[in-house]
Specification:
Largest sheet: 5 strands, parallel
Strand order of the largest sheet: 2-1-3-4-5
Helix content: 40-55%
Number of strands: 5
Bound molecules: 5-O-phosphono-beta-D-ribofuranose
Radius of gyration: 20 Å
């Protein structure tokens, strides 16, 4: 098995629905990664061990997702000099604002690169991780270039939003509009 370059960790299995987006994106780019549940609060010793051993195991970037009192990214960053990218998972109580602030508001000296709340943040964490490891691994830099080109191509291929939206929605809204016109 290929050695993981990116470590994807999260505070709970309940974070997987969000963090899966990071895993899928890394897979698509052909970046070797591992995923683990490592909780800052429920398994603090495991967190210390993971963060302090990651570099010598060959991990180059850590993506850490957590929700609520989201201490995992910050505490991971405190125990390694590897780049740590934090993904604020959307919490039920505060819609992820708590997660975002817990991850972003680090004291000077221990940085965490904080992404957007939720799945977009998880996907972007993977893309950013690929950009970082791409400095050293040219095949990953090229995969990222292709990903961007394909994404641009998809947008340019459907310039008319009415054609891009699935039938029912378009028909529903246009029939309402025509009713309004008749009145
Ligand atoms: C955090 O608490 C986790 O990252 C998760 O987002 C949140 C809730 O965890 P569970 O109670 O669902 O395990 O530590």
């Amino acid at each position: 098995m290929e050695k993981a370059l990116v470590g994807v960790i999260m505070g709970s299995t309940s974070d997987w629905e969000t963090m899966e987006q990071a895993a899928k994106t890394l897979e698509e780019l052909g970046v070797a990664f591992e995923s683990r549940v490592v909780s800052a609060h429920r398994t603090p010793d495991l967190l210390f061990a993971y963060a302090s051993e990651a570099e010598k195991r060959g991990i180059e970037v850590i993506i850490a997702g957590a929700g609520g009192a989201a201490h995992l990214p910050g505490m991971t960053a405190a125990k390694t000099v590897l780049p740590v990218l934090g993904v604020p998972v959307e919490s039920k109580a505060l819609k992820g604002l708590d997660s975002l602030l817990s991850i972003a508001q680090m004291p000077g000296g221990i940085p965490v690169g904080t992404l957007a709340i939720g799945k977009a943040g998880a996907m972007n964490a993977a893309l950013l991780a690929a950009a970082i490891v791409g400095n050293k691994h040219p095949e990953i830099r090229e995969a990222l270039r292709k990903f961007r080109a394909a994404q641009t191509g998809k947008v340019l291929a459907t310039p008319n939003p009415a054609v891009a939206v699935v039938g029912a929605v378009v028909r529903g809204s246009s029939s309402k509009a025509s009713k309004r016109k008749k009145r």
